[in-house]
UniProtKB/TrEMBL annotation:
Catalytic activity: DNA(n) + a 2'-deoxyribonucleoside 5'-triphosphate = DNA(n+1) + diphosphate
Any Pfam family: IMS_HHH
Function: Poorly processive, error-prone DNA polymerase involved in untargeted mutagenesis. Copies undamaged DNA at stalled replication forks, which arise in vivo from mismatched or misaligned primer ends. These misaligned primers can be extended by PolIV. Exhibits no 3'-5' exonuclease (proofreading) activity. May be involved in translesional synthesis, in conjunction with the beta clamp from PolIII.
Site keyed Substrate discrimination: positions: Y23
Keyword DNA repair part of the UniProt annotation: yes
SUPFAM superfamilies: DNA/RNA polymerases (SSF56672), Lesion bypass DNA polymerase (Y-family), little finger domain (SSF100879)
Keyword terms of this UniProt record: Cytoplasm, DNA damage, DNA repair, DNA replication, DNA-binding, DNA-directed DNA polymerase, Magnesium, Metal-binding, Mutator protein, Nucleotidyltransferase, Transferase
PROSITE patterns the UniProt entry points to: NIRD, UMUC
Name listed for the protein in its UniProt record: DNA polymerase IV
UniProt record similarity statement: Belongs to the DNA polymerase type-Y family.
Catalytic residues identified in the record: E113
Length: 392
C-alpha cells in the first residue's frame, strides 16, 4: 500500500494527551498559594535554565530552556523554584495508569505526554470529543492536573492538534481537514523539524507547511537528506500512517559537538563537556528513566576516535553525576593522549525504570537530580543532541 493512500472511512481515532505546565501544576497541588501566580521552575543558580513556566509567566515571554537570569528580568515578580523530579516521576506513573483505564493501547512519550488509540471506543465513551473530556476530567479529579488533548487520525495530526488544544482544552482535526489545517502553520510546528531543518528550509524560502508540501523535491532532498525529503513532505500534508507503538524506548542517550578548530585547552573541553552533560541529563529526566553509567567519545585531529565508559555507583539522572563521571573519563583520556580534539561526546546508557528503583537503595539518590543547577536545559527542538539506541 503506498504510504499516502488513506481510507477516510476507516479513520483511526488517536488521542495525544499532554499535561499543561506539568511541573508547575504538580507544585500547585502541594502549595495552593502558587495558583494564579507566575511560577518558574528550573535551575536557580547563575547558570540555571527554565524547565517550565506557568502560563501567567509565559505572558511575560518566559519559556522552557531560557536562562533563569533572563526569566528573572522578564518577570521579576514570578516565584522561582527548583524542581522535585522524584515527585514528578511518581505523578507521571499515576497519570499513565489513569490513561490505561480508557484504552488498552497507551504509548507514553515523556513524563507528561502519551498517545492513546481510541479507535472503536464510541460505544463505551461516545464521540471522541466527549471521550476526551471524560479522560481530562478523570485526570483532573484524581491528580488535580489540567490536561489538553489533540484528536486526529494519526499520531502526527493528534500531536499537532494538541498544541491547539492548550491550555486545558480539546481540539479535533479529521483527515480531510488535516492538509488545510497544517498549511498555514510554521514548519517548526511539524514534529521532527528541529532548528537545523528549520534553518535549511528558511534558506529555501520555505516557512509554512503549505510551502513545504508543494516545494520541488530536488532542493528539499539536499536540505533534508535524500531519504527524508519525500517523507517530510507527506507529513507536511498531514499524512502519517505510522503505527502507535513504533518507539522502542531509547537504551542510551547521547550528545556530541564537533569543534570548528581542534581544541586542546582543558578548560574549553570541560566547558563543552558540561553543556553536553546537561543536555543529556535533560533528555534523560524527561524520559522518566535513570542511567547505570556514562561514557565519553573523543575524536582527535587525525580522526582516530576513542570511547571510555564507567558505571555509576548507583543508577541516577543528575547532571552532576553525569558530569563528574564524564569528567573523570576525560581527565584520564587526556593524560593518556594530550593531542587536540576535534569532537567530544557524552552518553548515558543502561537506561530503565528498574534502574530508578535500584537507586532507592542508595543513601541520597535524588540529591543530585533535585539540585542540578541547570535542571533542564534544551530539548531536541532547541539543540543538537541526539538519542540513539543500543550501546553508546
Ligand atoms: P512540555 O509538555 O513540553 O511542557 P509543559 O508541560 O511545561 O507545558 P505545556 O505542555 O502546557 O506547554 O514539558 C513537560 C515537562 O518537561 C515540563 O513541565 C518541564 C519539563 N521540561 C524541561 O525540563 N525542559 C524543557 O526544555 C521542556 C520543554 C520541558
Amino acid at each position: 500500500m503506498p504510504d499516502d493512500s488513506i481510507n477516510f472511512d476507516k479513520e483511526r481515532v488517536i488521542f495525544h494527551i499532554d499535561l499543561d505546565a506539568f511541573y508547575v501544576e504538580v507544585e500547585r497541588q502541594n502549595d495552593p498559594n502558587l495558583r494564579g501566580k507566575a511560577v518558574v521552575i528550573g535551575g536557580t543558580g547563575p547558570r540555571g535554565v527554565v524547565a517550565t513556566a506557568s502560563y501567567e509567566a509565559r505572558k511575560f515571554g518566559v519559556h522552557s530552556a531560557m536562562a533563569t537570569a533572563v526569566a528573572r528580568r522578564l518577570c521579576p515578580t514570578a516565584i522561582f523554584m527548583r524542581g522535585n523530579h522524584e515527585l514528578y516521576r511518581n505523578v507521571s506513573k499515576k497519570f499513565m495508569n489513569i490513561l490505561r483505564e480508557y484504552s488498552p493501547n497507551v504509548v507514553p512519550v515523556s513524563v507528561d505526554e502519551a498517545y492513546l488509540d481510541m479507535t472503536g471506543t464510541e460505544r463505551l465513551y461516545g464521540e471522541p470529543i466527549d471521550a476526551a473530556d471524560t479522560i481530562r476530567k478523570a485526570v483532573r479529579d484524581a491528580l488535580g492536573l489540567p490536561a489538553s488533548i489533540g484528536i486526529g487520525p494519526s499520531k502526527l495530526v493528534a500531536k499537532v492538534s494538541s498544541e491547539h488544544a492548550k491550555p486545558d482544552g480539546v481540539f479535533q482535526v479529521r483527515q480531510q481537514e488535516a492538509e488545510a489545517f497544517f498549511a498555514p502553520q510554521p514548519v517548526r510546528n511539524l514534529p521532527g523539524i528541529g532548528p537545523k531543518a528549520g534553518e535549511a528550509l528558511a534558506k529555501l524560502q520555505i516557512s509554512t507547511l503549505g510551502e513545504l508540501a508543494t516545494a520541488p523535491i530536488g532542493p528539499l532532498r539536499r536540505a533534508l537528506g535524500p531519504n527524508n525529503a519525500a517523507h517530510v513532505q507527506r507529513r507536511a500534508r498531514g499524512i502519517d500512517n505510522a503505527p502507535l507503538r513504533e518507539r522502542v524506548k531509547a537504551k542510551s542517550i547521547s550528545a556530541e559537538t564537533t569543534f570548528e578548530t581542534d581544541v586542546s585547552s582543558r578548560s574549553e573541553l570541560e566547558k563543552s563537556l558540561k553543556k553536553l552533560c546537561e543536555r543529556v541529563g535533560t533528555r534523560l529526566r524527561k524520559s522518566g528513566q535513570r542511567a547505570r553509567g556514562a561514557s565519553i567519545k573523543l575524536r582527535y585531529g587525525d580522526f582516530t576516535t576513542i570511547t571510555r565508559q564507567r558505571t555509576f555507583q548507583a543508577p541516577g539522572d543528575g547532571d552532576q553525576l553525569i558530569y563528574d563521571t564524564a569528567h573523570a573519563l576525560l581527565v584520564t583520556a587526556m593524560r593518556q593522549r594530550g593531542d587536540a580534539i576535534r569532537l567530544i561526546g557524552v552518553g548515558v546508557s543502561g537506561l530503565g525504570e528498574q534502574a530508578a528503583q535500584l537507586s532507592l537503595l542508595d543513601q541520597n539518590p535524588m540529591a543530585d537530580s533535585d539540585t542540578s543547577e541547570a535542571i533542564d536545559t534544551i530539548r531536541d527542538r532547541f539543540g543538537s543532541e541526539s538519542i540513539s539506541r543500543g550501546s553508546v
